[in-house]
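Translate structure to sequence.
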């Protein structure tokens, strides 16, 4: 049984068959999946979903596959953590962390989109999968390709963190590092895709790939007892996830899984690469490409393919967006770790810092439910925080040595407290 009718151009509405296509031949608009929502409404219930394994395929009627899922059988269904301690610091009543830093198998939100893309690549009969990536996507494509026994080429900009490079290489793909930034990588990959006929998950399979991002929102709604949060903050890079969260919330209402409710969506970017936030603040839909310069490498995309749709989705939802400096991003990483015990990478630090800023500005009210999406894992980007954490105290293995150390540490605390009082 399939619930997918075909593809349709988002701009001119022209119909296309279910094939590895991504742009409209007439107007160059992006193609989107068209579902038979009436049929889905008749087929899917909360009980049916609840009876299924805890992975992202529990929402399979709203995902663009035709047969059984062929990848990602352990991906998704990440924790929605009630964040009391962070909530207290931010001064808000009902705060949650949607924690994709522990997504299976490569610890970022990308395991969602890649599960769907690789499943689809297998359905289409591709033997080689590929991607243009800022790091996390390459990790996920390489891991899922290994599990599926597919050939894999991943393309990344040079200068990425070790954790991101080795986090692909270990799965045995061919990694090609391009001298340039992500936008250079992406341009080259369009040409390679055309010439070699590979499944580029975020190029020719993009309409299918992008649908996987909806599962982040489906899970939040299910985990809240089939309700929408009132506010959600998420990072924007190429602009895939944010508009898909908006689409997912609409679909849940359309097929009757959620009764009503509105969720305002907020985009988070690094000040060193904020083309979407700049356009949003200027009140235009036109994104002016920028040259990225930030520690948040996984969201450093200066010319976001779907930036226009991010702005549309933000406006339609009544949300907003902000950008934060690298210093604020580091503070965001540490704040999340020290209040909630969750270690995220700079993209997550951006999400926390932007949420904090929007709350301080009064853009997000303090007495309504708020979700901060944490989209990546800090263990991949250790070098970013090495200098800003305390180094270990090195001592000999004697109690005396520890006593002395402990004394000096507690003296320091007392001294600090006394100085504070004086
Ligand atoms: C890719 C990515 C995002 C968001 O990217 P979009 O292209 O806007 O969907 C956010 N956080 C992390 C860690 C990512 O790797
Ligand atoms: Zn078109």
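Result:
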């Amino acid at each position: 049984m399939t619930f997918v009718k075909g593809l349709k151009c988002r701009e001119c509405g022209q119909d296309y068959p279910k094939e590895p296509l991504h742009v409209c031949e007439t107007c160059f608009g992006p193609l989107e999946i068209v579902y038979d929502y009436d049929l889905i409404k008749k087929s899917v219930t909360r009980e049916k979903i609840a009876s299924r394994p805890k992975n992202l395929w529990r929402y399979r009627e709203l995902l663009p596959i035709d047969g059984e899922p062929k990848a990602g059988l352990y991906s998704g269904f990440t924790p929605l953590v009630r964040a009391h301690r962070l909530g207290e610091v931010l001064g808000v009543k009902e705060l949650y962390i949607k924690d994709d830093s522990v997504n299976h198998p490569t610890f970022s939100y990308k395991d969602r989109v890649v599960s769907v893309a690789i499943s689809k690549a297998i359905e289409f009969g591709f033997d080689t999968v590929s991607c243009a990536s800022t790091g996390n996507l390459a990790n996920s494509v390489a891991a899922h390709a290994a599990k599926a026994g597919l050939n894999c080429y991943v393309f990344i900009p040079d200068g990425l963190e070790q954790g991101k490079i080795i986090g692909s290489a270990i799965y045995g793909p061919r990694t090609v590092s391009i001298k340039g930034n992500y936008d250079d990588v992406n341009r080259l990959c369009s040409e390679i895709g055309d010439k070699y006929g590979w499944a580029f998950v975020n190029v020719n399979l993009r309409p299918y790939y992008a649908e996987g991002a909806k599962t982040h929102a489906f899970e939040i709604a299910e985990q809240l007892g089939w309700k929408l949060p009132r506010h959600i903050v998420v990072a924007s890079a190429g602009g895939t996830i944010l508009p898909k969260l908006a689409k997912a919330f609409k679909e849940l209402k359309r097929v009757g899984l959620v009764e009503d409710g509105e969720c305002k969506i907020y985009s988070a970017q690094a000040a060193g690469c904020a083309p979407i936030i700049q356009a949003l603040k200027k009140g235009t839909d036109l994104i002016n490409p920028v040259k990225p310069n930030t520690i948040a490498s996984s969201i450093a995309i200066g010319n976001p393919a779907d930036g226009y749709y991010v702005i549309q989705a933000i406006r339609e939802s009544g949300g907003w967006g902000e950008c934060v400096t690298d210093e604020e991003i580091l503070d965001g990483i540490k704040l999340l770790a020290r209040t909630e015990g969750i270690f995220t990478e700079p993209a997550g630090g951006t999400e926390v810092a932007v949420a904090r800023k929007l709350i301080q500005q009064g853009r997000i009210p303090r007495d309504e439910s708020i979700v901060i999406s944490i989209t990546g894992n800090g263990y991949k980007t250790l070098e970013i925080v090495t200098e800003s954490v305390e180094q270990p105290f090195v001592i000999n293995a004697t109690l005396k040595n520890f006593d002395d150390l402990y004394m000096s540490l507690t003296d320091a605390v007392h001294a600090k407290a006394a100085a504070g009082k004086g």
